[in-house]
Amino acid sequence: MSTVSRISQRFEDSPLVERRDVSLLLVLPGLFFFSAFMFFPMLYLIGISFTNASPANLFTGGSFLTFGDATFVGIRNYVSVLTDGAFWNSFATTWLYVATSVVLKIGLGLLTALVVTGKHVRGKRWMRALIILPMGLPAIFTVTVWRGIFTSAQFGLANQLLGALGFESVAWLQQRWLAFFAYNITEMWLAYPFMVIITVSALQDVDENLHDAAKVDGAGYFARLRHITLPSIKRPVLFASILTAAASFQQFLIPYVFNEGGPGRTNELLIVYGFREAFALSEYGQGAAIMVITVLFIGMFMWVNVKKGRLADGVDG
C-alpha cells in the first residue's frame, strides 16, 4: 500500500473529533495567506481612509502599523470624495464602461463560441487554441500593443484602416469618446477568451434532441437559437458576465497606459481616480477613501447579481 493510501486509510479510521482537528490544520495555511494578502491590507486601507495620511506623515514618527504621524480626521475624506464632481464623473464613466464592455464581451464571446461549435466548421480544435491565446500573454504587453494600434499618428493601424475606408485620421486618445471606445475594444479583446471558454462549455451541454425535435417542427436556425440555445446557456453566461463585469469595474491598466484616464481626467475610472489622488497628489487618506467606496460598490454589485441571478444555487440550478 502506498504512503498516500495509508494516510487516507488512517484518516478515515480516525475519530470524528480528530478529523476536525486535521481539517482545521489543513485550512490554516489558506487562512494565513488570506489574512496576510487580503484581510489585513483591507483593514489597513480602511484605517488610512479615516486619517490625513500622506508621504510626509505616514512614514515618519510612530510606526507603520499605527499610521506614523497621520492624525484621525473622521469621515472628512469620505465627505470630500462624495462632494467632489470629479468622483461622480469617474463613477458614471466607470458604470458606463462596465455596461458597454460587458455587452461587447458577451456579443463577441457568444458569436465566436457559436462558430467554433458549429457542426460544419472545420479545424475547430485549432481555432479554440488560437482563441485562448490572448489569455497567455501578459496584460501589459497586450495593452501596450493596442495603445500602438490606437495611436494618433497616421501610421497607426486604426488610422490606416480609416484611411483605407476613405476617412481622415483621428486623434483616438485625445478625444474623450474615441478614447472610451478604444478602452472598450481593448477590454473586449482581453476578456473575450474567458467568455468563449464558458460559452463553449455551456453549448456542449445543450440537449441535441431538443434541436432535432425543433427541426421536425420546422424551426429554423435563428428560431432554435432564440428558443433553445440561448435559454439553455443563460445561467453559465450570466455567471461569466457577472465575473467579467466585476473585472471591468476594477480595470486600471487600460486607461492608465492609454492616456492616464484622459483627456483631462474625463475618462478616469474609479481605480485610476483613486490611484491619482493617492500617488500623484499624495493624498493617501482620500485615495484610500475612494478605494473603500469602490470596494463597497463592487461588493454590492456582486451581491445583487448573485442574489437576483440565484447563482448561489449553482450554475446549473
From TrEMBL:
Under SUPFAM superfamilies, the record lists: MalF N-terminal region-like (SSF160964), MetI-like (SSF161098)
Give the primary localization class. Answer: membrane
Under InterPro entries, the record lists: ABC_transporter_permease, MetI-like, MetI-like_sf
Q: Which UniProt keywords apply?
A: Cell membrane, Membrane, Transmembrane, Transmembrane helix, Transport
The subcellular location is: Cell membrane
Q: Where is the ABC transmembrane type-1 domain?
A: 91-305
Query: Which family does the UniProt entry place this protein in?
Result: Belongs to the binding-protein-dependent transport system permease family.
According to UniProt, the name of this protein is Carbohydrate ABC transporter permease
Source organism of the structure? Halospeciosus flavus
